Amino acid sequence: MKAAPFEYVLAESLDHALECLDQYGLDARTLAGGQSLVPMMAMRLARPSMLLDINRLAELKQVDIREGAVSMGATTGQRAIENNIEVHGAIPLVRDALRWVGHIQTRNRGTIGGSLVHADPSAELPLVAVVLDATLRLCSKADGEREIAAQEFFLGPMFTATAEIECLTSIEWPIWEGSGVRTAFDETAMRHGDFAMASAACQLQIDENGVCQRAAIGIGGLDGVPRSFPELAQQLVGQRIDVRLAREIAHCAVQQTEPGSDLHADAEFRRQLAVVMLTRVLQAASTPSPHGTTNSTAHA
Amino acid sequence: MTDPKHPAYNAFKYIGRHRRAVEHRRFVTGQGHYAADVALPGLLHVAIVASPYASARIVSIDTSTALSMPGVHDVLTGEELTAQIEPMLPGVDAPKVARYPLAKGVVRYAGEWVVAVAAETRALAEDAAEMVMIEYEQTPHVIDTEGAMAEDAPRVHPDHGPNVIWHRKFTWGPVDEHFAGAKHQINYRARWARSSTVPIETFVATCLWSDATQILDVWASIQMPKYPDLLAKCLRIPGNSVRVHFDVDVGGSYGVKRGLKHSILVGYLAKKLGRPVRFLEDRLENMRGGDMQGPDRIFDVSLAFDGDGTIRSMRMRAVDDIGAYSGRSPLQLGKPVGAIVGPYRIASVEYDAYSVMTNKTPQEAVRGFGQAPTNYAIETGIDKVARFLGMDRIALRRKNLIGKDEFPYLIPSGTRYDSGDYETVLNTSLSAAPFNAIEQQRDALRAQGMLAGIGISTCLEPSGGNSAFEPLFNAKNETTTWMDSCLIRIDLNGAVTALMGTSTSGQAHETLVSTVVGEILQKDPDSVRVLHADSLNALPSNSPVGSRMAIMLGGAAAGAAKILKSKLLAIAAHNLGVNEDALTYEDGNVFIQDEPARRLEWDALVEIAHRKYHRMPTGMEPGLQEKFCWEVPSGGQLPTEDGRVQMYPCHSFECHVVLASIDPDTGKTTLHRYVVGHDCGVMISPDVVHGMTYGGVAHGLGAALLEKFAYSDEGQLLSGTFMDYLLPSSEEVPSITIVDHCTPSPLTAFGQKAPAKRAIWVVQRPLPAL
Amino acid sequence: MPSPPVTIEIKVNGLLRAQMVEPRTTLVDFLRDHLGLTGTHVGCEHGVCGACSILLNGEPVRSCCMFAVQANGMSVTTVEGLAPQRGCLSKIQDAFCETHALQCGYCTPGMLIACHALVQNTPQPDEAQIREAIGGNLCRCTGYQQIVDAVKLATTPGYQVKEKSEPIAGQPGQVAIKEASND
């Protein structure tokens, strides 16, 4: 299990990186944390002739907490964000999700942008990106910079809107202003750290009377892309979220999905899990405690 | 870390005491010496081209492009290889089921090796392997085990005939009569999915041929009886032309590190190319085409019993799917013959056993050698009987467990259980839980909406590795010994060195032997060096298979040390002018019991033996070097005509108590409490025994909850990576409580039975109450 | 078409090592095949088993999931470099020996790296933290119990290394540890 030969290019600047991508096009792959790409190359499921390493670009590691949004360079480390208290305060759902991503060793190398571009339908960060309506910034030499909503970014399993000459440079995670913002993330996997058979995330804003003022919800692991449900989320607004409502919304959400089957979970089981996961995160986040709780259980 | 408290241990100075394993010092500093660490100048590396199909005819192979690539030294096909070597033996009498390292003409499972490339690096070998062009024509395949038994099923080996490679129906005792006389009968099916032990080290073989000496040096991660002999035979070279270096550390095996086909392939290439060659399986090769998959069984069982819970008789039909070729796999139906009634007093048994071939990866020997699936099938039935009768399953077990006064106990299939106290272990395990507390916890979990239950399992694991299943399964095979041996030497400076003749895959044999030798010679075990001799220097060994080394290697080491000790006593008696029975041996020094001042110290005795022949007793060999080769206690006999045989000598008992819950919404299983009580006689190294017990339980949990080699209908392995074949991690395996009990075996040197290395692979049925 | 080798410099166990490598050489193959540091093991080569864990700039990572060129200019600690001095054991290494936290030894280097990293940041971890820290390291021998025990023991206040060997002058990781027995 050794990678096919390739040419290695260490990007010296973003311009240099974009220049390389422009030149090599489809033959190039951008290397971020490599926690998925390197094993795929070892199995020769990926065999770029040029590997563009963007890990040393300081401009892709900037973390900036501004009014209304946290901006994160594409190669910001997962572990660095997990340990960043300020980021956690601003966008708690990201850290809730990161605790489910792989293991400490993989999060030490894995990057935020790498996980998004890899676009595994079961992965945690893509789900959070669609739930929070994150904006992804892509750059190319030919067309310069463009922004794309997470919703439009994920096109299918391991398939995104990134053109072959483009590089994801940063992600903007919206901050919900005001008090009473609560989040929860839950998933069921065969083992802790495995890709989820079904996952769910939500971010709610609950006023002092327990009434939901704002809501965002989503499900991962069922369709080819993570799904958010803005219309259903809107139905939560103005309500006190109890179990009945949570379950009803979860059922409606799952009805809109078309899960597939694999060795560990068939479509029906995935649907059931997703209903449970979404119900649970809604319950957890609507229970009065700061930032809700993260229900944490791997299927053992 | 605390020493066991049992009177049997009072007789010992080092046995049964906490002691750091000798091996650990090298492992924790990264100084282990594994087969992949052997560095040889000019080493070539092998990569495999494997069949993509479960069944196909090989139409053509074009190796020309691959051969022309830089760094490539050979591209070997089955056509060439099979002409130059002997086939591997199938384990049972089925000569047409020929097996070679590389396929010739046809492939019989997806992943079967077709071509091997040898190149200067593994990466170059893989580059070239991609360029080997093979044309196949798919042929009908059979994946379903029972489907393969049908008359019209595609035949995996047409020359052999039907896919059932071995079948025998044993009847031990008046089964029909007992069934007719019993008040009740239940019938059930138990399914054991294909799983394995999957060591973290894959298989590695490194070979070097010398034209000058005509010796093939082999460094391989093996755990296999008769490996050097079989390798030489298949390569058509004399046995003394193969030198297997047993001093490599093996990164886990639990039965599966066989690798004969790997070694034949590499040995052939090394000899052909005149260069050292290594094949280090990658994980994909390992899971799909290595010796990596275990029993895959369907049990149909009937139990006959009375209203009071007395189980009278059992009919067991066992169908084992061994995959496309036969190694020792059919014999895994054989070991359970020696414990076919488990720990229970069942008076008669019918055992109808089938080995079936399908177009799947071949099965290999796996921890427990077939006992774990059988234990699972029996335990399933015990709980079913209890439920049928509305009887408490613990009371039912107590009613049927063999009593401690009944040993040695002869079971219907001809094996005598050596010793045990099953009920006491059951009781202490329940108290350790403690049972009433976990019942309350179970009820609390149920009140929270969880499905919760307590699993109880009592079962046996035979130990001491005899070969008795070989003649039982193949009348042409008359093997009746599976000896093991040890050679001990005391050098001129008084240091003690022991030699063993096999490799170690985590069982801490150096610790075992040095503890035993230290015990007999009363020398600090840390001062005893233990070496793994190579196969040309070694005495006979049958490797650490069959839960045998504490018994067999321990017994051999004790035997050799005792000979040395008696030699020292004889020298002392001669020099002190007294009879030996007047002498006391203490810490290596010898003195006259009534006159302790008249003594000979260790150093003086050693010097006499090495230098002062004039002070030796007449006729005694000079020097201090002795070997002992031990036959398996209670072994040595062929089976009777109706298939009764003394299988293994010793029988360890274990009792598992587990509180588990399942989240009804997600199916997530949580283990809240796990207690395992066990009795393996005297534990020579309690830390080692406990380690194997924890690990055995973890294997069982993996098999029960996570691990499965799954196949598609087309015969493609669906779980061929660590992302699909799920090994339990520290977050899935719970904290485990071990309860020790000691019923010394009357058959062994110190009363030891198997450390639970393979003894505990029982799969819990955690939720019988659901 | 083979890719041209590149020169890299990596500080390994405190020593700067400069070598030419093919870009496709993974860091673990570099450590084992180029530097002869065979203490780090390969178990799956696809980022699951954790046997190849090393410290990269002090943090535990999987050395099968990165190419050696990526570590250019960085510092790496392998199992050979965990001991404070040649001939000594670290507390974690010593506690592994004491609680029998290993059997075949194959996953052990990766486990030690994971545990070492844990106690650097969390001097007195609880059981859940220990299990999380080694959750990415698979072991088939121990059922993990004695590994958890080892970390607890090593982090017990006042735990002293019991290893009998005397310290030997020189860097850890360069020469075999001195044998304690028979001398």
UniProtKB/TrEMBL annotation, chain A:
SUPFAM superfamilies: CO dehydrogenase flavoprotein C-terminal domain-like (SSF55447), FAD-binding/transporter-associated domain-like (SSF56176)
FAD-binding PCMH-type domain boundaries: 1-178
One Pfam family, short name: CO_deh_flav_C
Domain of life: Bacteria
Keyword field: FAD, Flavoprotein, Oxidoreductase
Family annotation (InterPro entries): CO_DH_flav_C, CO_DH_flav_C_dom_sf, Diverse_Substr_Oxidored, FAD-bd_PCMH, FAD-bd_PCMH-like_sf, FAD-bd_PCMH_sub1, FAD-bd_PCMH_sub2, Mopterin_DH_FAD-bd
Signal peptide: none
Record-level Gene Ontology MF annotations: FAD binding; oxidoreductase activity
Record protein name field: Carbon monoxide dehydrogenase medium chain (COdehydrogenase subunit M) (CO-DH M)
Native organism taxonomy: Bacteria, Pseudomonadati, Pseudomonadota, Betaproteobacteria, Burkholderiales
UniProtKB/TrEMBL annotation, chain B:
Gene Ontology MF terms: iron ion binding; oxidoreductase activity
Organism of origin: Advenella kashmirensis (strain DSM 17095 / LMG 22695 / WT001)
Record-linked InterPro entries: Ald_Oxase/Xan_DH_a/b, Ald_Oxase/Xan_DH_a/b_sf, Ald_Oxase/xanthine_DH-like, AldOxase/xan_DH_MoCoBD1, AldOxase/xan_DH_MoCoBD2, AldOxase/xan_DH_Mopterin-bd_sf
Highest taxon of the lineage: Bacteria
Name the record gives this protein: Aldehyde oxidase and xanthine dehydrogenase molybdopterin binding protein
UniProtKB keywords: Molybdenum, Oxidoreductase
Aldehyde oxidase/xanthine dehydrogenase a/b hammerhead domain sequence ranges: 29-140
Cross-referenced SUPFAM superfamilies: CO dehydrogenase molybdoprotein N-domain-like, Molybdenum cofactor-binding domain
UniProtKB/TrEMBL annotation, chain C:
Highest taxon, organism lineage: Bacteria
CC cofactor: [2Fe-2S] cluster
PROSITE patterns cross-referenced by the UniProt entry: 2FE2S_FER_1, 2FE2S_FER_2
UniProt xrefs under InterPro entries: 2Fe-2S-bd (IPR002888), 2Fe-2S-bd_dom_sf (IPR036884), 2Fe-2S_ferredoxin-like_sf (IPR036010), 2Fe-2S_ferredoxin-type (IPR001041), 2Fe2S_fd_BS (IPR006058), Beta-grasp_dom_sf (IPR012675), Diverse_Oxidoreductases (IPR051452)
Keywords: 2Fe-2S, Iron, Iron-sulfur, Metal-binding, Oxidoreductase
Gene Ontology terms, MF aspect: 2 iron, 2 sulfur cluster binding; metal ion binding; oxidoreductase activity
Domain 2Fe-2S ferredoxin-type: 6-82
Database matches in Pfam families: Fer2 (PF00111), Fer2_2 (PF01799)
This protein's record includes keyword Iron-sulfur: yes
Name the record gives this protein: Carbon monoxide dehydrogenase
Source lineage: Bacteria, Pseudomonadati, Pseudomonadota, Betaproteobacteria, Burkholderiales
